[in-house]
Automatic annotation (TrEMBL), chain A:
InterPro entries: ABC_transp_permease. This is ABC transporter permease. It is a multi-pass membrane protein. The chain crosses the membrane at residues 16-36, 42-63, 93-116, 179-199, 233-254, 266-288, 300-324. Signal peptide: none annotated. GO terms for cellular component: plasma membrane. It comes from Umezawaea endophytica. The keyword Mitochondrion does not apply.
From TrEMBL, chain B:
It comes from Umezawaea endophytica. This is Autoinducer 2 import system permease protein LsrD. The lineage of its organism: Bacteria, Bacillati, Actinomycetota, Actinomycetes, Pseudonocardiales. It comes from the Bacteria. One of its GO terms (cellular component) is plasma membrane. The keyword Zinc does not apply.
Length: 339, 314
């Protein structure tokens, strides 16, 4: 019995990720003395992991129905643009602006979903075209409304959100660690909400069914079109949230927010075991996959690798991880046949 | 089959009409300055690369794959060629075939990875894109390589009756590709695999071979685009290829290539590239923000998507 549990957990992609993550942290930690420095290494690392996990979740939302969102970065820019507008032009407080931006992201996502369902054209093309359109639109708005191509007004609380860690949260005499940024709360909340959606909520389960077999889902009475629009709206909203987190980190709202989101948005979910064909998602896996890539990035940077040569190793890791997964799959299939 | 041909042809007629009307409108609003020899030369010189990368994507789409490494591979090959000629003294007659071979070789690797690992082609080329971007940077860093072969440079500027040689190269590639897909056995196999892999396999066609051939051709066409860039650009650096990816998809999509594979339109892709170029010229003529080009192209593709569906439903 215990052996079976052990074997099953060994076959789980996520166990491999955790082991690899621990191994890498130990290796980097022993090679680099300052690797565990909480303020200058761990804090920014976790802040990036938090932001990119939300980016991964934005991609995961559409992967769940077997779609892709190429415009994930540009939807983040679109949402962030509205937040910048809200702070600079409408003088709204921090969270009101956040709500407006996320709603704008969700709206553009829903529009994308509507175009897909009404035309029946595959999501890749539609989101790619949306990417083009938003790329142009967002930079046009910035160049029209700002002088320095950025909204720089910081509402009350934004600076604190950027620098505060759990060390600033105290319950009586006990304070948290200064290694964990407060910004990570958004990622945790997003993971909990998305996790609840796909494991407990009817809507989320129906999205997964649409992903694994749209025809069967339609025949079982699931409103397929509405679930598709819903998944894209969720993706847009989460992308906008990630845009907010990045803007808080960098201190201003610019048109280039999210331009680096495309690769990480796939790395996290795919390494974590989310299927590209739809029907299966892993929220924890997305977090682990994102953490793995960021730990590698951080470690190699501290060992003196250039930013660009990092992308070589990340690409190789992606290929290697997925090839290994394929090998494991083939072996388990052979075992099943022998039995 | 006839109706499909008719539909594609009508799509191409529409595109041709749009291109001619757009060009005429620009000539009129520019007060005829667009008809001068140098203006025509510039127009076509900047059309060569968009046509070639559109075709490179078209081949991948034809077999039901995508090639996300278009820009990264183009940039890498262009930089490799430039560095080989400028810093290692490789003669131009060796560097050009070498660049083409390098492009095709990476294409074959893409194809083999897809076939052997069974990973989605999207993810494979996303990974190779990342790797190649890094390699391109390793090659040139932040420098611009420009002191290579004057022969190639002169060829890049040469024009016959105000039609640049580089554009003729792109056009020749389009013709060869169209003939290959229409007449050659591997080309027909490629389309069959893209249209219906199961039916293709039952007819004795190797889908795996089709996928590798498609990626190899895609890589080869990117190699041609890289050579054209080497010849016509003022120099090569790490930014080459950075804006190719979206452009490579826009031309085939507007040109009416079925994204599920199996149906292609080479002439549609070329015409669509012309139209995108017209948008760019219009942008320059009215001195608008460069972002307008992306916005208009995106809106046009979305419009095409919705309209095509309506026409299909009618």
């Amino acid at each position: 019995m215990t052996l079976q549990v052990l074997r099953r957990s060994l076959a789980d992609q996520r166990t491999g990720l955790v082991l690899l993550l621990v191994l890498l942290v130990v290796v980097f930690g022993s090679l680099i003395p300052t690797f565990f420095d909480d303020r200058f290494v761990v804090f920014p690392l976790l802040r990036d992991v938090a932001t990119l996990t939300v980016v991964g979740l934005a991609q995961l939302a559409v992967l769940s129905i077997g779609h892709l969102n190429i415009a994930v970065g540009r939807m983040a820019a679109f949402g962030a643009m509205f937040m910048g507008l809200a702070y600079e032009q409408w003088h709204l407080p921090l969270y009101a602006g956040l709500v407006i931006g996320v709603a704008a992201g969700a709206a553009i996502g829903a529009l994308t979903g509507l175009i897909i369902t009404s035309s029946g054209v595959n999501s890749f093309v539609v989101t790619l075209a949306m990417d083009f359109a938003l790329l142009g639109f967002v930079s046009l708005v910035y160049s029209e409304l700002t002088t320095s191509a950025a909204f720089t007004t910081k509402p009350a609380g934004m600076q604190e959100l950027r620098t505060f860690s759990l060390a600033d949260v105290c319950v009586g005499p006990v304070c948290g660690t200064s290694a964990i940024p407060q910004l990570a709360i958004f990622a945790v909340l997003a993971m909990l909400a998305v996790g609840y959606l796909y494991s407990r909520a009817r809507t989320g389960r129906e999205m997964l069914m649409v992903g694994s077999n749209a025809v069967a889902a339609e025949l079982s009475g699931i409103p397929v079109d509405r679930r598709i629009v819903g998944a894209h709206a969720l993706s847009g909203g989460l992308a906008a949230l990630a845009g907010f987190m990045l803007a808080v980190t960098s201190g201003s709202f610019t048109a280039t927010i999210g331009s680096e989101f495309m690769l990480p948005s796939f790395l996290g979910p795919v390494l974590g075991g989310t299927l590209l064909t739809g029907g299966a998602v892993s929220i924890i896996g997305t977090f682990l996959g994102t953490s793995l890539t960021q730990v590698i990035r951080q470690g190699l940077t501290m060992l003196g690798a250039s930013v660009q040569s990092l992308s070589i190793s990340l690409g190789i890791i992606l290929l290697a991880a997925l090839s290994l997964d394929r090998v494991r799959q083939v072996i388990s299939e052979r075992k099943a046949v022998r039995r | 089959m006839i109706t499909l041909d008719a539909r594609l042809r009508s799509n191409e007629t529409t595109l041709a009409v749009v291109a001619v009307v757009g060009y005429t409108a620009l000539v009129v609003t520019s007060g005829g300055s667009l008809l001068s020899g140098s203006a025509i030369e510039t127009f076509f010189a900047y059309l060569a690369v968009p046509v070639l990368i559109g075709l490179a994507q078209l081949v991948a789409l034809a077999v039901g794959q995508m090639n996300l490494s278009v820009g990264a591979l183009g940039g890498f090959v262009a930089c490799a060629g430039g560095v080989a000629m400028a810093q290692h003294g490789v003669p131009v007659w060796l560097a050009v075939p070498g660049a083409l071979a390098l492009g095709a070789f990476v294409g074959v690797l893409n194809g083999l990875l897809v076939v052997l690992t069974r990973i989605n082609g999207f993810i494979v080329t996303l990974a190779t894109m990342t790797i190649l971007t890094g390699l391109q940077y390793e090659l040139v860093g932040t420098t611009t390589v420009s002191d290579y072969s004057p022969v190639l440079r002169d060829l890049g500027r040469a024009a016959i009756f105000h039609i640049p040689v580089v554009f003729l190269v792109a056009l020749a590639a389009a013709v060869v590709l169209a003939v290959f897909l229409r007449r050659a056995v591997p080309g027909r196999h490629l389309l069959a695999s893209g249209g219906n892999p199961l039916a293709a396999r039952l007819s004795g066609i190797s889908n795996n071979r089709s996928i590798v051939v498609a990626h190899a051709l895609s890589g080869l066409l990117i190699g041609v685009a890289a050579v054209v860039t080497l010849a016509s650009a003022p120099g090569v650096n790490q930014s080459i290829g950075g804006d190719w990816l979206l452009a490579s998809f826009a031309a085939p999509i507007i040109g009416g290539v079925a994204l599920s594979g199996g149906a292609v339109s080479v002439s549609g892709t070329v015409l669509a590239a012309v139209i995108i170029r017209l948008v760019d010229v219009a942008r320059a003529q009215f001195s608008l923000n460069p972002s307008w080009v992306n916005f208009v192209v995106g809106a046009v593709v979305l419009g095409t998507v919705v309209l095509t569906h309506r026409r299909g439903a009618a």
